[in-house]
Amino acid sequence: MLSTEMAVALNGHLNTELYSAHLYLSMSSYANFLGLKGAANWFMVQYQEEMVHFTKFYDYINSQGEHVKLGPLDAPPSEFANLLAMFQKTIEHETHITKCINDLTELAVQQKDHATQIFLQWFITEQIEEEENDREIIGKLKLVGDNGYGLLMIDTELGARVFTP
Ligand code: OFO
User: Fold this and answer.
1) Less packed terminus of the chain by CB within 10 Å, N or C?
2) DSSP 78-124
3) Which 3 state secondary structure label does DSSP give 74?
4) Signal sequence: where (predicted)?
């Protein structure tokens, strides 16, 4: 059973995961608009992953005898300067998510809520991977700069990403 404070915090984060999904769906569409089909695929897979994260919170809250409270979501940005700006926005957002997960974990520790601590472990590991992937892509994009051939190579690489639930 969750404390009221923990239930509110988990519900808040569930809504943040849904915002993440919308952010990457928006980026996928914009990448497609720019003609970057590979990047559009990468962000669509990211959207699908965020929906998995959202569903994990949804299932956990329900399994603890609580119910989900969906809130209003801000609209994500719908235009970006270029692909590098999209990935810079991505890592900035993921760094924020990592902090949110750390704060939730801290609360669970304070409350001696071991079940929630175990639930959050998966997300702690996931955030390491998310940030690492983003940093790698940003590094490559900075290397190629405005070189069209380099950008197409990276776009092809991003097109190979597959959703694995
Ligand atoms: Fe759900 O990890 Fe990204 O936001």
Assistant:
1) C
2) ---SSHHHHHHHHHHHHHHHHHHHHHHHHHHHHTT-HHHHHHHHHHH
3) coil
4) none
- The candidate with the shortest Cα–Cα distance to 34, out of 88, 112, 86, 91, is 86
d(CA 45, CA 43): 5
Residue with tokens 């994260």, as numbered in its chain: 53
ipTM of the complex: 0.94
Closest Cα to atom 4 of ligand 1: 20
Kindly report the number of other CB atoms within 10 A of residue 115's CB atom: 14
Task: For the chain, list the domains and their CATH numbers.
Answer: 4-159 (1.20.1260.10)
Model pLDDT for residues 122-143, shown as the tens digit of each residue: 999 999 999 999 999 999 999 9
0.90 exceeded by pTM: yes
Going from the Cα of 149 to the center of ligand 1, the distance in angstroms, rounded, reads 30
Q: Residues in the chain, how many?
A: 165
Binding residues for Fe cation: 17, 50, 53, 94, 127
